[in-house]
Automatic annotation (TrEMBL):
Organism listed in the record: Anopheles darlingi (Mosquito)
Pfam family, one: Glyco_transf_43
Location of the protein in the cell: Golgi apparatus membrane
Protein name, UniProt field: Galactosylgalactosylxylosylprotein 3-beta-glucuronosyltransferase
Keyword Glycoprotein listed: yes
């Protein structure tokens, strides 16, 4: 009898031991999986940030983007913002062709985390200079008002930080005109960073001026002799806006350098550059002007016939949505 009780007791104890073991095991493994989840979140965050260089190196590059409201605007600016995210030395000066800044553009800056290295301005093109409905896009200059507004902001900003002694030694920085529809490689900004104080850098631009590539022509010593442009090669600087950047000290010492409504079509680049440099003094970049790191792409205007039909019935596909 006693033996039987002892046996049962043993079974009970063994049973209890197993239950306790399972209980603690489940507790500890739950703790572990909680930890794992936390680690996964941190890893995900690190993984995402790993793609984002967050250390600014080299001089600041002020990228000037004129932009205007149209169906593709958010797509264009999102594309650009993601390039700029990858290059911490870029400060984005975005100038809307509008009376006031828009929430659409503010949202792009917020979503891309660029609020702290951008400024959102507005400058409306005067109506007499604005393209109308079916005007071909070359009829009137585009971006003049916006780029001049950006230049004014940059000059004031640089003077303010210089006077406040914020940059020690006096900050070298660069200005690049970055239209919202072109395609930019992040490598282009490594090249821009090489521009020396007092210099204007130049490089090839793909798909522009009726050519696969418009590029500076160099002599054997690497001096810029001229350009291969087919369109209006008689221009003093026959190159595209995307094909050069300026050391900002030149802009401070030459306050009259800017864009103009008064010049012939295709002469905006020459208009600003004639104040700043001569062809032979330009600094060739992108492996002796042998590489294409920017393309003058143009986005097709989307056909929105069905949307227009919807609007006639007072409806829209994007009701309450920003597209
Ligand atoms: N742009 C503008 N207002 C306009 C037309 C154009 O601010 O009415 C901007 C546009 O967003 C772009 C730049 O000016 O950043 C040059 O315009 P576009 O790309 O149409 O010129 P293209 O490529 O034909 O030289
Ligand atoms: Mn364009």
């Amino acid at each position: 009898m006693n033996q039987e009780i002892r046996l049962r007791l043993k079974h009970l104890l063994a049973f209890l031991a197993i239950v306790l073991f399972l209980f603690f095991y489940s507790l500890s493994s739950r703790g572990c999986s909680g930890e794992q989840e936390e680690q996964a979140v941190v890893a995900e965050q690190n993984g995402r940030d790993a793609f984002l260089p967050n250390h600014k190196t080299g001089p600041t590059i002020y990228a000037v983007t004129p932009t205007y409201a149209r169906p593709v605007q958010k797509a264009e600016l999102t594309r650009l913002s993601h390039v700029i995210r990858l290059v911490p030395s870029v400060f984005w000066v975005i100038v809307e062709d509008a009376e006031k800044t828009s929430t659409l553009v503010t949202n792009v800056l917020k979503r891309s985390g660029l609020e702290n290295r951008s400024v959102q301005l507005s400058a409306k093109t005067p109506t007499n200079f604005k393209l109308q409905g079916k005007d071909p896009n070359w009829l009137k200059p585009r971006g003049v008002e916006q780029r001049n507004t950006a230049l004014k902001w940059i000059r004031q900003h640089l003077k303010r930080s210089r006077d406040a002694g914020e940059t020690e030694p006096p900050g070298h920085s660069l200005v690049y005109f970055m239209d919202d529809d072109n395609t930019y490689s992040t490598e282009l900004f490594d090249e821009i960073a090489k521009i020396e104080p007092g210099k204007v850098g130049v490089w090839p631009v793909g798909l522009v001026g009726g050519l696969m590539v418009e590029k500076p022509v160099l002599n054997r010593d690497g001096l810029v002799l001229g350009f291969n442009s087919a369109w209006k090669p008689e221009r003093p600087f026959p190159l595209d806006m995307a094909g050069f950047a300026i050391s900002s000290d030149l802009l401070l010492s030459t306050p009259e350098a800017q864009f103009s409504y008064e010049v012939e079509r295709g002469y905006q680049e020459s208009e600003i550059l004639r104040h700043l440099t001569i062809v032979h003094d330009m600094q060739p970049l992108a492996s002796g002007c042998k590489e294409v790191l920017v393309w003058h792409t143009r986005t097709e205007t989307p056909k929105l016939d069905a949307e227009k039909a919807l609007q006639k019935t007072n409806k829209k596909s994007n009701d309450g949505m920003e597209v």
